Every structure is written in structure tokens, then in C-alpha cells.
Amino acid sequence: MLTLADVQRNPYINTFIQRSKEALSFYHYTDHGFDHVNLVAKRAKELAKKIGLSNVEQELCAIAGFCHDMGNFIDRIDHEYWGALLFFEVFKNKMPPKDLGLVMQAIANHDNYKAKVLSPISAVLILADKSDVRRSRVIIKNKKLIQTDIHNRVNFAVTNNKFKADPKKKRITLQLEIDTDFVPVMEYFEIFTQRMVQCRRAAKFLDYKFGLIINNFKLL
Predict the structure, then answer these.
(1) In the chain, count of helices (H) and strands (E)?
(2) pLDDT higher than threshold 90 for residue 96
(3) Does position 220 have pLDDT exceeding 80, yes or no?
(4) In terms of Cα–Cα distance, which of 59, 182, 203, 33 is closest to 117?
(5) Collapsing DSSP states into helix, strand and coil, what is residue 166?
């Protein structure tokens, strides 16, 4: 079976991720490079294990997490589809067709807010990816420049991030600490409402509820 470690050693995949990081850095986007994809892969595998997915499914979730943003170097628009096609080209002879299809589907759906969640792999990837909101994702160091972009402002304002699943309560929770002197909580919702709705849909597919807590206030 292809493992996350195998994928992390693949020179094509590493090149795609590095090029994507460089491309988005040019536009002062938040980090979409190795820090982000490694964290998403780690969270995806941990979540898959916590909710009781099989060992094979856990590995597929981690692989999808590592590869989900690598299409950005071709174009930010439709990067999820580019990423799925690139994954196919690299691994079409190295994975069983069913597993290959599940990872491709997860990559293609992770940033498509209109798509239905169709597999546990897709659901886990959405939750792991959309939960990665943190100050260290902001590449710009100048606070005045950070203020010019809402995505950078909101990520920079997040000083603590906890993501956990409770199988007994059937609840997946994202808990954030936000510096409200830097950005009001409502500004978080201005850009993340759609993402939180997607997280709720993904959790529902897994027969879980999704909860959002900001500064100790339960919002979802």
C-alpha cells in the first residue's frame, strides 16, 4: 500500500507543493506550503483514527491532506481540480484504482463549496484543511500590510488553535483564541462562514456535529 511517507518522498509531489507555495507567496496569500500540508495531513490522519476509520482510510486521508493544495502553482482558480489530476498522473500505476479515486475525489472536493461530500476521506480532508487557521500561516511580517487583506488579518489574529473529536459525544470541535484588538470576531465570520458551513456538512456526513468556539464562546 502507498503510504504518506512514500508520498512525502516523491520528488514530483514535493516540487508541486514548493512551486505552489512560491506562487501564492507572490500574491501575499497565507501559507499553502509544507507547514500547511503537513499539518493538514497530520490532523486528517488523527481525526480518521479518532472516529474509527480503517488503517487504509487513515492513510488515504493523510495522503489527501498532504497533496490537497499542490495544484495552486498552475492556478489558484480550480486548484483543487488541477491537484486531483496531478495526483492521478503521478500515482496512476502505484495505487489500486479505488484508493486512487478516493484521494482524487477528496482533493477535488476540498475547496468546492457546491460539491456534495461523498466519502469519509473527503469529509476528513475538509475538516482538517478548514481548521488550519493560525498566526504562523501569515507570510507577511509588516502589520500594516497584514491589515490590507482580510485573510491575513484573520489568520494573524488567531493566537491559539485546538482541533479535537469526541467519539462519545459525536462532536468535532474547532476552538480558537482570537486577538480582538487586532480583528473583531465578526470579521472572522465574514470570510469563514462558508468554510464553517462546509465543515458542518462534512461532520454531518460522518454522523458527527461540528462545533466552533471562539474566545470561550460557543458559536456553533
Answers:
(1) 10, 4
(2) yes
(3) no
(4) 203
(5) strand
* Measured distance CA(6)–CA(18) in Å, rounded: 17
Burial environment of residue 180 by CB neighbours within 10 A (0 to 12, 13 to 18, 19 or more): middle
C-alpha distances (whole Å) from 42 to each of 65, 129, 140, 199, 205 are 8, 10, 25, 17, 21
Using CA atoms, how far apart are residues 172 and 165, in angstroms rounded to an integer? 4
Q: Domain residues of the chain, as ranges? A: 4-156
Q: How far apart are CA 206 and CA 185, in angstroms?
A: 28
Find out whether 13 and 90 touch, Cβ atoms under 8 Å.
yes
- Computed from CA positions of residues 18, 45, 78, 137, in that sequence, does the dihedral angle turn out positive or negative? negative
Q: How far apart are CA 96 and CA 174, in angstroms?
A: 34
Give the three-state DSSP class for 214: strand
Superfamily, domain 4-156: Hypothetical protein af1432 (1.10.3210.10)
Per the CB < 8 A criterion, the answer to whether 187 and 153 are in contact is yes
Least confident residue range of 59-63, 159-163, 211-215, 216-220: 216-220
**What are the pLDDT digits (tens) for 114-129?**
889 999 999 999 999 9
* Structure confidence at residue 41 (pLDDT): 98
Task: Decide if pLDDT at 219 tops 90.
Answer: no
Residue type present at position 168: K
Q: Which residues contact 13 (CB under 8 A, 6 or more apart)?
A: 7, 66, 67, 70, 90
The per-residue pLDDT for range 81-93, each reduced to its tens digit, is 999 999 999 999 9
pTM: 0.95
